[in-house]
Amino acid sequence: MTPVNNTTPTTAATANTGKLSTKMNILRRLGITVARTTKGGNAPTTTTCTGSAANGLFSKTSGTPPTSVSTCSDKGSTVKAETPKALRKRCEKKVEDMMKEFDCRKLLKHPETYGDLKADLTDALAHPILSSDLEVLDIVATGGTAFVCAAIPQSNDSASPWESEDLVALKFTSKRSKHSWAEIEIMEDLKKRTEAEFLAVMNFSFETEQYHIMVSPYMHLDLSVLTTTKTEIWFNEVNFKVTLAVCREIFKGIANGLSELHKAGYAHGDLKPENVLLSLSHVPTAVGTTPKLIPRVSDFGHSRFSGEPTGPKWWYYGTCFIAAPEFWSTYTKDPENPKRTRLTKSANPTHHHLFPADVWAFGCMLRDMFGLERFESPEKAKNRKVKKGCFWYNEEFRKFAMEIMAKYKMDICTSRKIAEVYDHKRARVCMDFMGEELDDLLRGCLYMNPAKRITVQQVLKSAFLKD
Known about the structure:
Pfam families: Pkinase. By secondary structure, the chain is an alpha+beta fold.
């Protein structure tokens, strides 16, 4: 999913910094601060969190939604039932507040995909689960086919099926979308086929008149936050720096998740940093426990199934900037927007296998994790002063990219979206790094010819990801 307002928060948030973004409010609620390293290495101000919200666990794993329960926790007291008119008024007010806090222009512009946001979401919030069991907090993310809200249980009753402090994610897919059932069916099938340790599958789903709603644990972060240059994560007073060890563990988990998906016959179809969610876990050690970030591949709205060894065929990849070269001909400049980078589908696109495309996307994410820049216009690339980092083939890769540009006749619009210069930005992240290991893995993932690209099983066996 796309992060809030297409931006990633990078500064510490404190109580007196004015109006916070919706996403930062949620992160602060979980005890997370995303901050640039301060001079002298001092830790940024943090807001800590206790209870089950701090570890993000959602212990109710039943595949069916819970029965609505009373929101009153005082034994012996009685509460007058809310009238339908009062409930409607409350839901309308809540939706208005949510729309003020989140940039809803994308949702409002495409009612054929997201529905009539104000009317449909107001009706949905009146559902017994959303009006009694869960308090919907805010819209926190949008994607190509759905939007996500954060919610927290309202009931402290001992009979409640919810943990009192478990924050959950609600993914709303409009029934107006022809693909509304697809992701739910895929998730249900994945739960039967695999343990899904590194896949963010839903706990259960339910529906309102307007939406299919999937309920999942609320993950603390997505990988796009960690790809921000020189970012540190302070998590319940635990500092996660983007070290080589952290990078290896995260990408090993992503590769395992992708392997689980491919073994089940599914291609992801839209693998990118925003679709890799991170949660905090505590791993037992000989002297106690060690905190660890666990990645889970999410958002299966573009997934496809096939029993073929190279996966299903499709004519486009979910996000153009991370699409493999064989899909580049799918995207052309929008003639109505000649000065913008908006792309449209070609008239007669060719179908390609998606397993190799997932591996290309994995390589692009790994490149991004190390602050390696994407392709710029030929003019900019020609005049750029290449910094010498931990990779030793900058000029060779520049020539490789230019050949791709010529073969596929890429214009400046598309070229900004493609990998080119391996420009190492992170100052000290790779001090103890053996460059050949990552070099070999990136080359294997980023072969222009999909037939030569390594498989996800070979990714897991690579020297870079070995224990």
